[in-house]
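W.,

You were right to be curious about this one. When I first looked at the sequence I had no strong expectations either way, so I just let the prediction run and decided to look at it fresh. Below is the sequence, 346 residues in total, followed by the output.
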Amino acid sequence: MADSDLPQGMPHICVCLCDRGSKSDRSVGEDIRDELESGTTIFPVVEDLKLFSELVPEQLTFANGIAWQDDASLQRLVRVLLEELGIEDQQRRVFISHRRTDGLGVAEQLHDQLSHFKFQPFIDRFAIREGTDFQEEISHALEDHAFLLLLETPDAHTSDWVFDEVDYALSHAMGILIVRWPGDVREVPGSGGLPRHSLSDDEVTTDDHGYSILTDAGLDRLLEAIEAAHARGLVRRRRLLVESVREAAVAAGVDSCISLRDWKLLIGTSEGLSVVGTSPRLPSAIDLQAVDEASTQANADLPGVLVHSARALPTDLRRHLEWVSHTRSMRVIPENAIGGWWIDGH
């Protein structure tokens, strides 16, 4: 489809399935050039990355290639495309909850492997500095990751920390996936009915130090489950947050409420229009920038509101966001206070 055939402002991407024929086909090269000049992001897809330079047209040799070899690589390709279109989350963060006595080996194994799959995993022993308020840091980390991966090992149900992390995730509508160990393992209190990925006996082994770890096959199967659960969990969290804002706006009697791209709303009141963005994690300067850009795309310098679901913002973060937004007509508001924004006449 030519660029002119697409509605103005609609996000679009291009996938180039490359083989030796496409490399030498002049018409393919011309189409690629036209798309690049129009600002389209093009993904070169090859069967074998080792043959990248032999298969990809010259106009695309600057880009990172994507391999398509089997069902697993196809799933990764689909997720990359969904991320580029803004349908799936690009910041894939995972909080790994575990009991150290029998879950540390797998937690560290997953931390390493998830990092290779564009995730940002969190384990307390790696991320929390000595001398800091441990409980406060854990709360902030949960807010900022918005997805809990619980390792339900035989000892996990005895940990107060694990219980608190699950309780926090549930009360904040975070995405959750529980990795259940084989055998007669007791559920962590309060986790009944939550999504579970059950490991089989042959997927758990021990390393040279006696720690439980996953086999390669078990690890591959779990990584696929995490990718799928994370995508579902973050979409659900974003949808709930947007609907909460919409319901608060309607209850406050706004004149109009229109959905925009990337989980934003255009709200109309007697005072005028405003753009409302949402953040499923701790809000950031990038989130404020996205709201500001949405205001510009609406062909007006509209007031902006960024809504988040965190119970409380860290002091340093709150001050930073105030500094970033002080020259713009923009506010950062918790979800439970957004209704008052319109009731008070803003």
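Here's what jumped out at me. The first helix runs from residue 20 to 24. And, maybe more interesting for your project: The chain has twelve helices and 15 strands.

Coffee later to discuss?

I.
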